[in-house]
User: Fold these one by one.
Assistant:
Number 1:
Amino acid sequence: MNKRNQLRLLTLGGALAPLSAMAHTGHEVAGFFQGLVHPLSGADHLLVMLAVGLLAVGQTGEKARDMTRRTRIAVPAAFLLAMVAGTLLAIAGLAVPFVEQGIVVSVIAAGGLLALAVRFSLVAGVAVASVFALFHGLAHGAELPLAAQPVAYIAGFLITTSALLVAGTRLGQLADSYSMGLISRLAGVAVAAFGVLAAV
């Protein structure tokens, strides 16, 4: 891997560094701009979305490469759809206990799966991403009563979520192109470690 591509990886990773520990701090929610920056305001959202993007590319071998082309699209898309579903369920008044704990578990699990280089079938990958996203969507929805413009807020966080998922996928593709699976494993260790720290 040449220095230019190493710099790309470091720059992309550094640019997405979390701004605070957790995104759900009870801060005021308003509209589109707040929705746009919300996923960047806490490491829980940011790390899970990047991890899901990395997991979508985390396949090796010829047979797996064919699957990777599908998972690269299907897994992030499933995450987005499940997050919207969770948001709508929360808006509808569904009260699910332990949402914050579920988010922390999703961070630990996503990191663990990356660190262990777990291989998924397409269905399993979609299911795992959907479960992770459901908790994040429920948390988003719980904050929407504070929103002056709920539809604009949802549109904002969907745009940023999509960008983070694409960024994770791109990082995974770069690492895979240069046979640097160790990067994904180390990223997984870091994500899981953050989740454990957040849990204690």
Number 2:
Amino acid sequence: MEFDHVLSVRCSVRRYTEEPVSEEDIQKIVKAGEEVPVGHFDFKNYAIAAITDKKVLRLLAEENQALSGRGDPIYGAPLLLLIMNTPEAREDSIKLNAGIMAENMHLKAVDLGLGSICIYSFIRTLNREEGYGKYFQALHLPEGLKPAMAVAVGHTPMVQRERRFVARIPTFRIDGKE
């Protein structure tokens, strides 16, 4: 898919089918997350977990519902890509680095014809819990990792539609010319 087309059809998808994401597509999406430039070359302090275990995803939805009163934060997507950092990651760049990783994975999912959504709300909610919630403990990840951002991915009944560009953010050109 052409890059400009990917940008024009990119949207946050909140409806998924139960069809699993192929292992090949998971690998491509994770690779997109790994290909980011990380500030201060701090790659060793980040990790990505690709979660397809239905029990863990259900536990995440139940915990989020109990704590926030809101429903499933990943909208039933069959794949959750959890971006994590170690305690040694530079605090001032964690959200920036994780956000760039998430956007790369989000764009790759669109390129593959999949629906996706970048998510932070459940992380903010569950970070208040001891150990970042039972869902996180169920992952059995190495000690010290902390969730920073996530991307939910799956097949969707929604059709990718190109949006007409509408400038919504003020931009300024400073070029020194009079």
Number 3:
Amino acid sequence: MDEATRIHDYLPTSYADKSEEAYIRFLWDAFETNYNAEKYEFANLAFHLLYMSYVCFSVWQIRAARRADFDNAMVGFQREVENKLATAETPFKFFENLKESAIFRFIKLVGCSNEQVGEFSKFVKQRNRIAHPSGNVFFNSKENIDEQIEKVMTEIDNIQRHMTPVLHDCLQTFLLENADAEVWEYSLPEDQIDAALIHPYYFSHKDIDACLDFDISALDKHADAGPIRELFDIFKVGYPPDR
């Protein structure tokens, strides 16, 4: 169970609306309840949906930071599907138009190999196998489910390591677009950071941790370098890695 709780660090700290947050909370409650009741098959199904939600949030960030690459990755999709993926208002809309395993083609945009993507997507095949009547219970012991959770978290760690450049791009876009406090929606920088960075990009604690290492000196030659650095410093103070 301790290994499973790590997934919270990879899930957003805020959501577009309360229904999304309630959905993630429901999945965790379903996992925890079934795990404690030794209904490990159902616990695995709930944990799988948490994993796929994490993948959705990552693809959302990729679309935001690498839009041209994202559009190119849709080559071969029907035009209607392309339009829906391009205009999806939330990460959860991606699955309305894609087979579950197809979402992983976008993970390749952060430098993952076909072999790695195969490792990421193998859990979909496993889930499909147990989601249909088979006469077998595949996860019938604590050892089985704990081993599966460890494997899932290993792949989440692997995806997250590849996401750092994308997250830095999201942060840089935020800093450049918000260098002028006169255009802020909110008067307090902390509120502006929440509204224009943490919330729209669905940042998790792990995402925030990765952004604390952003090389702000890369923007030293920008005309608004001073305000940009000040905003970044406020971000670092407001979102320390310890939690």
